[in-house]
Amino acid sequence: MSLIELDPDLLQDIKKYGAFDVSACFNCGTCTAICPLSDEDGEFPRSIIRLAQLGAKEELLNSKELWLCYYCGQCSTTCPREAEPGEFMAAARRYAIAQNDVTRISRVVYKSKAAYVGFLSLLTIVALWIMWPYADFSATLQPGINPTWIYFDPEFVHWGGLVAGGIFAVWMGLYFLGLFRHLMRQLRLYGPDSTGVSIFSKLKIWIVSLFRVVFTEVLYQRRYATDQDTSVPFRRRRWVLHMCMMWGFILLFASTVINWLTKPIEIMVPITYPTHILGIAGGLLLVYGATRTMIFHARRRDDNYYGHATFSDWVFLTLTNLLGISGFLLTLDIYVPTWQQWAAYFNIYIPEWQTFAGYFIIFHLLIVGLYIVLAPLNKGAHAFYRPLTLWVHEYGKGIKALTTPEEESYTDEIPILT
Ligand code: SF4
Ligand code: SF4
């Protein structure tokens, strides 16, 4: 049996990542009783609070419970000590991201608004400094040609896109591997013994688990969906807004990749081209989900979920919104020459759009760049971390199902320390 190393400052350290007071917690278990996730999958959120109170840092970082919680806020509503367990879970996730951060940037920006603003400003200056020399704002829009190729040096667009994609893959991969290492450690320490299981069976379980997670938890978000407040109009439910943002990203990503694979990117196709329709639908979903969520954060200050947005949450939602809006401005660039021709036919005047077009492109590229750098650090990172956690957890379940009798239920939960 391995000894648990305790860090007496753990709770204080986590507190720096969000406002809450779990020191008031007297371990009554009300939050666990109300949490929709507290079934055979683990004890939410009490077990994590207990680990933090005891200073069991490694066990806390290794726990899947951190990432399965989707911050519904129900535990905070029912806590008799107002210890805000839901906010504690969110702060503990930020803490875990910061611990996995090899650059240490998140440790600074999560704790200080001034540092976050400074970091964003620095990124903006560097991005503009890189892009500006390759831009030609006096260029003239031409129907049928992607304006990015007109206003920017085509070589820069081509290589810049590849380098940005590469940076994103390596950057995100570092964080992804950090979490994977923690999860596998938890599986080794508290999960089922897989000694007798063949490599082939393990591989099969990894693949089946991956499909199960992608279809039920990523594309449909089952746990979120089963916990909807049906008294709220459908279009305003958190699950719906969350699905809008997530599908918005998926459609935009799909449209970009399909475009890149199927046609020369510098050629413009009609607005009715399938990938454009896909991209426009993705942009609309993204802007709708992000705007509504921002409005609710601003208005519902007493709500246990919406009332707790941190500065980094606001930055994430603002960038998400700007990503969609700047994409639409870019789309306008592309089609305005055609619309001007149609408008002239009906004697309607459309102003010379190209005055702004180059600036809209640089604005869109700037937002994309900021998004790439901030991806593993901000709230959007859970889009990668949560599926990974669920995947490892499902794999553990699969191994256990293979190695133990049916009547024994599986849990890879860290034993609760009392
Ligand atoms: S966080 Fe609140 S509800 Fe949960 S165990 Fe502690 S006191 Fe009880
Ligand atoms: S915020 Fe919701 S999902 Fe997370 S621990 Fe609390 S009740 Fe459970």
Summary, kept brief:
65% of the residues lie in helices and 0% in strands. By secondary structure, it is mainly α.
Features:
binds iron/sulfur cluster; mainly alpha; Fumarate Reductase Iron-sulfur Protein, Chain B, domain 2; globular; 418 residues; 2 domains
- What value does the average pLDDT take? 84
Major sheet = none
The gyration radius over C-alpha positions equals: 24 Å
Shape verdict:
globular
Number of strand elements: 0
What percentage of residues falls in helices of 4 or more residues?
Answer: 55-70%
Any ligands, ions or cofactors bound here, and which? iron/sulfur cluster
Question: What's the number of structural domains?
Answer: 2
Strand content: under 5%
Structural class: mainly alpha
What does this structure look like?
The chain is mainly alpha-helical and 418 residues long. The protein has two domains: 10-100, Alpha-helical ferredoxin (Fumarate Reductase Iron-sulfur Protein, Chain B, domain 2), CATH 1.10.1060; 106-390, no CATH class. It has helices spanning 10-15, 30-34, 46-54, 57-62, 65-68, 74-78, 85-100, 105-109, 113-131, 147-151, 154-190, 199-219, 222-225, 238-262, 274-299, 311-345, 354-374, 382-403. Helix 12 crosses helix 18, helix 14 (238-262) runs antiparallel to helix 15 (274-299) and helix 16 packs antiparallel against helix 17. It is globular and about 75 Å long. The model has no long low-confidence stretch (mean pLDDT 84). Residues 35, 37, 44-45, 69-75, 85-86, 89 line the site of one iron/sulfur cluster. The site of one iron/sulfur cluster has 14 residues, from helix 2 and helix 3.
